[in-house]
Amino acid sequence: MKKLRYLALALPLAAGIYVAVGRDASPAVAAPGAALPSALVAPGRVEPVRDPVTLSFEQQGRIAEVLVDEGEAVTAGQVLARLDDRMAKARVDAARAMLAQAEARHSLARRGPRREDVAAARADAEAARAAAAHRASEQARTAELGKVGAVTTQAVDADGAAARVATAQASAATARYESLAKGTRVEQIAEAAAAVALAQAELAAATVALDQHALKAPTAGVILRRTAEPGAFVTLAMPAPVLAMADVSHLQLRVEVDEADIAAIGVGQAAYATTDAHGDRRFPIRIRRVSTELGRKTVRDDDPRARVDTRVLEVIATFDEAPGATLPVGLRMTAHLTP
Asked: Could you point out which of 57, 63, 116, 268 has its C-alpha 20 to 30 Å from the C-alpha of 325?
């Protein structure tokens, strides 16, 4: 009778334990054919399609003016800031003057001497030859008188030296005339042309240096950051950014999908994004690129229960159409992905 009583008590206890264990236990590995979740929710951040760029000067100097402010839209080639360029402008003016001088010498070398200059050189040569002939006759007469003792030896020597000087001067004048009559040498013209090319290169270098005193927008976009003010001195040893800008006309959403959900996403997949700032409004997006490497989570949300040490896969999604509302760069959004 006691055995039957114990058995009657043990059976209900065992049944209760079985029910409790059966309710709490779950399989460690999902079945191969387990269904994927009906919708995935993943955090993302708005960013421009092209990465923002930081702008700095290519020359050193003191900033004279910064012409834009943060949030201002700019066009490609627009001047955003300037350095003090007074010295650079002076160098450009000096280079222009040197080029004009070189071009004038080259033109003179190509044209050669004027007819008036040739005629004057010929007259000088004829006058020098006449003077040399006169000195030669004087030297001959003095030499004859010296032989008979009518003049001193010093007088004979002096007239001889004067005759030789006159002959040399006549030869030099004749050579100058013949040189002018033949025109400018080819080598002189080439030298003058080379001087022009050098002056042109120096002017181009000075112009580039002057242009580098102006900081221009490489593309159209919006100024994100202004990190320098007029009066600051910039150096090339440690270039400091002056402005940061980005093209915000084309935006994308960088989404971080938990590694447990990566099998449910693919390129071309349609989805939508929401943000607290716009309530229930849905922004249609489409997955354009999926990363091939897992990384650490970088987009933080306000949920204290969210894990921050999980590994995620980055997914790039583009907006199907330009958002009607302004979405600032860096805005946190929630992507709703449907497998």
From this structure: 268
